[in-house]
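Researcher: Going back to the complex we discussed earlier. I've cleaned up the inputs and rechecked each line, so this should be the final set. Can you rerun the prediction on the complete assembly and write out the structure?
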Amino acid sequence: MKITLDTVVKTFDTFRAVHGVSLEIESGELIALLGPSGSGKTTILRMVAGLEYADSGSILFGDKDATDIPVRDRGVGFVFQHYALFPHMTVAENIAFGMKVSKRKRSREEIATRVTELLALVRLEGLGDRFPTQISGGQRQRVALARALAVDPRVLLLDEPFGALDANVRRDLRRWLREIHDQLGITTLFVTHDQEEALDLADRVVILEQGRIVQEGTPEEVCRRPNSPFVTKFLGDAHRLVGPVTSGSARVAGGTVAVPSLPDGQAEIFVRPADLSWGEGDIPAEVTRVIDRPDGRRVVVRLEDGTTLELDMPPETRIEKGDRQTLRVRRAHAFPLA
Amino acid sequence: MRRRVLPGLTLSLGITLLYVGLIVALPLGALIFKAASLGPEDYWRIISSGRALASYRVTVLSAAAATVFNLVFGLALAWVLVRYSFPGKRLVDAIVDLPFALPTAVAGIALTTLFAPNGWFGSWLSEAGIRVAYTPLGIMIAMAFTSLPFIVRTVQPVLEDLDPALEEAAQSLGGSDVAIFRKVILPLLVPALLAGVSLAFARSLGEFGAIIFIAGNQPFETEITALLAFIRLEEYDYQAAAAIASVLLITAFAMLAVTNFLQARALRYTARS
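Model: Rerun complete. Updated structure for the full complex:
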């Protein structure tokens, strides 16, 4: 099911949560709405679900205007941030709920068969008789998904689906959600504030700031060509350097950075830890701290003007506090400073 | 003894047990002791006399009716107070506690004045052929009045804590408002409703002050058990009074035990495996 949002606006009391957002989601796509808290991403998701009504603009499901269709008739599966499982029902009863209350009558056997199928799909065979308090967070998350899928939704919507889980479970569930999506081919929209999660999982990432879409594109597009300082910073660790540009080269902290596409004038330059080389280039720096991690060493350095940068080095690197060397910025995202 | 992190167990437990003993258990023990000083035959004769049986019937039926009324009305009131905002909401919320604060005799006199055949409500009702004052209906109204806060105040906090996402989830799964209320909200309120019902019913069984003014107190018709015990007291027949009171006590106790059991059953989903 293709979903189209056309200049959708939502205001709560006096706070404008969503400013004229337009977005097209192709049938079968897996889309991430990514943004910091207060960026309006959850509000957009809830409007697509019909849990909030848009003040103006329209939401289309296929060619049909769904803007005013109430949630119970919209045919969406919604997975809530804290799962919202019915605590007094067993896992199987939770999954069966939608089928039991639906206008379409199903026989008891039909429901039982479908529940068994869904339990197998979410790999929770044998846990049907447990209550939600008796299973782990990751399992609850999967029950919530099975419950949403039980009513054969045309669209699957997930609000911060992995937010409440610990890192390892989160990574597993992410892979698994991707598999389920590929298997079912259902149009899926999920909200997250975790850029890694969005990039890991989605076909396309929509980045929001203060109720507006600031950039959308595949993970590759947004990572390689962020279109603003906000997107650059939001997508991952980035240090900001400021300096004047003359003929494609910026002067920063006693050295230079190549910024070929930039016009002359003040510029802000963002560099990531992996974009820096130690012992090359012409920016003088002193090591202030070395942080060891399983996959390498992160080195914190101070430049002449007091700016602190971090860079990643292989685990074998011999380096310690107090070492002085020069740095080279191999790669940077630079924007003219207005 | 195992070492504990939280201090003051011995002291606080000691004080609590002492007070429970002095304030609750001692008088009840004295009551049972007094009743037990009758022989089994005398005891049985007193508690199964025609007049006593009639008083049980009036008391239990009125209390049951009042509790059912409060179950519906108290749930509705709690619902409205939690779910909606309207002018005067805080006032209504405060008024709910009034039956707790008011001396019950005052409530009884006020209700009698209202419902007497020449009172504000009573004159209207008697035109319609309904008599309230000096009938079991009056007893029921007095009981409903004094026990209303129990159900409202037990259901209200649970309703406030109900996660709105549960209802949204049920809606997104296609549930109608009626289905959501019946299958999601009501089952979650059952433990609180049971607690409220048992308190309200127990209070109604023992209510005295509010009832005696409106009931008319005709033996065999509108005489409640608590009044019968009081009459025996006034006749200096302490043993009979204790015997009749013991029936009330045992009934209330059995009822609380049953609702506790039902509550535990309704809450079984909170148990971790």
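Model: Worth noting: The interface with chain B takes residues 49-51, 70-74, 76-78, 80-82, 84-89, 97-98, 100-103, 130-134, 147-148, 150-151 of chain A (CB under 8 Å).
Researcher: Good, that matches what I expected from the previous run.
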